Amino acid sequence: MTVLDQVNGPRDLDDLSEAELVELAGDIRAFLIANVSKTGGHLGPNLGVVELTIAMHRVFDSPTDPMVFDTGHQSYVHKLLTGRQEFSGLRTRGGLAGYPQRSESEHDIVESSHASSSLSWADGISRAFQMTGQDERHVVAVVGDGALTGGMTWEALNNISDDNTRRLVIIVNDNGRSYAPTIGGMARFLSGVRTRRSYRDLRERSQRAFNLLGGPGRALYRGVRGGAHGFLSRLTNNEALYSNLDIKYIGPVDGHDIHAMEEALTQAKHYGAPVIVHAITEKGRGFQPARDDDADQFHAVGVIDPETGEPVGAASRPSWTAVFSEEMLAVAEADDRVVAITAAMLRPVGLHAFAERFPERVHDVGIAEQHAFTSAAGLAFGGLHPVVAVYATFVNRAFDQLLMDVALHRAGVTIVLDRAGVTGPDGPSHHGIWDLAILQVVPGIRIAAPRDGERLREELREAVSIDDAPTVIRFPKGSAPAELPAVERLQDGVDVLRTTEQPDVLIVAVGPMAPIAIDVADRLAQQGIGATVVDPRWVVPVAESLVELAAAHRLVITIEDGIRVGGIGTRIRQTLREAGVDTAVDELGVPDEFIDHASREQILEDAGLTAQQIARDVVAQVLGSRIPVARPLPDDRVEQDTSSERSTTRPHGA
């Protein structure tokens, strides 16, 4: 039996010896490597916070003392120490979530996995405790050095410093990286702390001197090293970063030394006011393949070999991200006005190749999406064409800047949204299902949704040719499907994917939903119902040819993997009504809910977005006499009642 097997909750840590704690840290790393390699997930970040998390739970009493993890991808160790050691279903339906989740445990506080928000949460919780007489409770926030590049963190620090009577402990988990190495002035400052010879030399010489005294000397070193951090911080001038905020600073502390972390956290606990504890850690610690990975040190992995770290069962087709990455290089080669911006996600969004080829033309702004968009407006004003690449879930954070800085000023900025639509295992805050509904209200915006890799290439080129309005290209997570050619391209760019001699149903497929739409048309044909399938390519604004096609059909079905409330289907229905076209519209999409982690296929099935379910519903409408068809169905069908009213819209999958 391992030491980890004996830990069913935080208080089981209290009686462990220092040797057992070290053994526990080893058990946890072995457990994470063995289990996450089978399911995929965030491996590197969790390997880096093992001792830090053990010390947190030894010093503080969760959930009485709430623990808030910034982003939350480093919470696997926290899950293990709070009784959740069944990792076989990690990030799958019915299994553990990849981030903190309140329904899993009372120890989980913040579910949102968007960075730089933890200190605002901690500020609010600690204020509530103070105002309601719960002064004995502490609030602990773990924030990575990458999150310090986000403006929200500094807004929170400014407010935390306004009241120095709250029991709030901020742990800066400083590993020099977010996804990739942290950038900017903050990164340079903290890097100086980690690498400054005065700090490292003094610490190493002190440890060697005490070791010469044998066992008693090592015991004495353990006793004084916590207090030495205060001296070291003055020696290295770390407090300069926080002195003007009037927040107590302790550190830097070796984040992999459990005793030193406990000493520092105990000091912070008893200080009686907000304290910052600066812990130096190594992302991917204990797993050499992760340490050797210069890209992101196994920040997030798929299924891998636990010995070598090599991917298992790699996809046979290139990912959407890879297609975008390759095409961005070609676009930049052809147009030297094109520059790229990302928010601490250079590699995840595929801009690393661009950065290697054109290092002077890419700007990583850190976890600062708002700044990215307004900066892009400035670049456009200066005569360039910026391409801002972020995950779809993170564009929500920069809506005001897109609206007021980019669109209002008619700036030619292209926004590329990776992981759009249903993303699957990463859960509610990582689904990219809101972008279509949110962004289409921006005046003048143009939104493209490619159905395959070739459409992504051509639509990217079209987007960067537009210099008087923002353009958006969105694509999902995973492999780009095989090319789905059109049978005809209409004058305004709409692709017709399937034609019919009997125009009963017009199916409008948004981007990657095109293969499902083709399948639906085939199923309807078997039932004697004719269906035309189109891919608008540019879903906003609605093309005139789409209006004409809708007028020639009896029913319009729109299929999208965004929320149906205010989605593209709604936009098409409104456009048809404005044009005087009264064809019924059935808007199919994802429900306006926070959707739990599951596979993309499971989520689409739950929403009724399968070819079988959609075809069944259309047939039911036709046979139920709600929608008259172009010609009578075969004699063995139910007779039509063409006098019934047409449906203008109806809920789907409810």
From TrEMBL:
Cofactor(s) needed by this chain: thiamine diphosphate; Mg(2+)
UniProt superkingdom: Bacteria
Reaction(s) the record says it catalyses: D-glyceraldehyde 3-phosphate + pyruvate + H(+) = 1-deoxy-D-xylulose 5-phosphate + CO2
EC number per UniProt: 2.2.1.7
InterPro entries from the UniProt entry: Dxylulose-5-P_synthase, THDP-binding, Transketo_C/PFOR_II, Transketolase-like_Pyr-bd, Transketolase_BS, Transketolase_C
Main function: Catalyzes the acyloin condensation reaction between C atoms 2 and 3 of pyruvate and glyceraldehyde 3-phosphate to yield 1-deoxy-D-xylulose-5-phosphate (DXP).
Subunit and partners: Homodimer.
PANTHER family (UniProt xref): 1-D-DEOXYXYLULOSE 5-PHOSPHATE SYNTHASE-RELATED, 1-DEOXY-D-XYLULOSE-5-PHOSPHATE SYNTHASE, CHLOROPLASTIC
Descriptive protein name: 1-deoxy-D-xylulose-5-phosphate synthase
Species the sequence originates in: Plantibacter flavus
Gene from which the chain derives: dxs
